[in-house]
Amino acid sequence: MSHSDHLLKNFDLRSTPGRQEVLQIFLKNSHALSHGDIERSMPKDFDRVTLYRTLKTFLDKGLVHKVLDDEGGLKYALCNNNCSTQGHHHNHVHFKCTICGQTSCLDVEIPGIKLPKGYKSVETNLLIQGTCVNCA
Amino acid sequence: MSHSDHLLKNFDLRSTPGRQEVLQIFLKNSHALSHGDIERSMPKDFDRVTLYRTLKTFLDKGLVHKVLDDEGGLKYALCNNNCSTQGHHHNHVHFKCTICGQTSCLDVEIPGIKLPKGYKSVETNLLIQGTCVNCA
DNA sequence: CTGTGTGCAAACACTTTGCAGGTGT
DNA sequence: ACACCTGCAAAGTGTTTGCACACAG
Questions:
Q1: Which CA distances in Å does B26 have to A31, A124, B23, B52, B97?
Q2: In the β-sheet with A64-68, what is the strand arrangement from edge to edge?
Q3: Minimal C-alpha gap between A1 and chain B (Å)
Q4: Would you say residue B135 lies in a domain?
Q5: Could you say which DSSP state residue B30 is in?
Q6: How far apart are CA B34 and CA B40, in angstroms?
Q7: How many domains does chain A have?
Q8: pTM above the 0.70 mark?
Q9: Is a pLDDT exceeding 70 seen at residue B1?
Q10: How does A50-63 read in b/e, with b if 16+ C-beta sit within 10 Å?
Q11: For the packed helices A17-28 and A3-10, what is the interaxial angle rounded to 10 degrees?
């Protein structure tokens, strides 16, 4: 059984050719991908609608997490080992390089933020833009 | 001359009924607004396309700034006094309440983040989700 | 075998572009 | 008067829904 098969199983997902394909694309890319990015990387005859559903499923099951974009779109990135169907543990910074355009997860914790009285934080999303190590 | 007239002038914008209307909506709402929010608040016969262009213009001139959304859309909020056509000075936290759904600018600074060697930060966007003071 | 995933068609929503005419300065 | 803004039409793009069939478990 392949690596992606295992991964899918771990997340309570049936292993189908389409899902394996999408998962491969995530595994091959270290940066976050938009729906469009993935679509372009898939065999040209792969159904667009199925991809929408696949991504939604991956998201629901916790295989991938959302990455915000400054243009107001969404990207997706594989979750690390701390995540399962049960829960997520994301507290890292997302970095978008304005030169190469790639957005990636950095291994940097988001510092605790002191909010005004009465506000309670549940989830935090931090997107930093600038130039990445490859484009410097 | 009205308040919104002044504001528009300050940002090198012609004062037109449509722009005043949009600006009023921002002034009346303390939270960030999406294109759809604004459209719903405008007279029903107001042209959708003009609104796209108006928001883009406001953004370009620095009258409003982008507010990211976790669903992958964009919202807009009035800039504070530190902003002008010349430049922005945004370094505050955006908070989205998962109960009332409102996103607002908090008067809380985003702390400095130490990035890995070679990364350079230019702009930072922080969205915190949770429950706000009104919904607690 | 059964429930879930897929592909197709169509509807729907969102956003952009071009142009003719109107309006602020 | 001139440059810019607006409204309309149309095209382009992105996303959702329903249904019949295929397939994994």
A1: 36, 25, 5, 15, 19
A2: A33-34, A74-78, A64-68
A3: 35
A4: no
A5: S
A6: 10
A7: 1
A8: yes
A9: no
A10: ebeebbebbeebbb
A11: 110
Could you give the 3-state DSSP secondary structure of residue B107? strand
Residue B120 covered by a domain = yes
- A108's enclosing H/E stretch is strand A103-109
Window 99-128 of A, Cβ < 8 Å to B? 106-108, 110-111, 113-128
> Would you call A70 and B69 a contact, using CB atoms and an 8 Å cutoff?
no
Question: Structural domain of residue B55, as residue ranges?
Answer: 3-130
CATH number of A77's domain: 1.10.10.10
Residues of chain A with pLDDT under 50: none
The encoded tokens of residue B126 equal 């922080």
Contacts of A55 (CB under 8 A, 6+ apart): A22, A35, A38, A64, A76
As a whole number of angstroms, the distance between CA B135 and CA B99 comes to 7
Environment class of B106 (CB within 10 Å of its CB; exposed 0-12, middle 13-18, buried 19+): middle
Residue B51's nearest nucleotide, by CA–C1', is D6
Is position A28 within any domain?
yes
- Residue-wise pLDDT for B102-120, tens only, equals 999 999 999 999 999 999 9
Q: Evaluate whether residue A136 is within a structural domain.
A: no
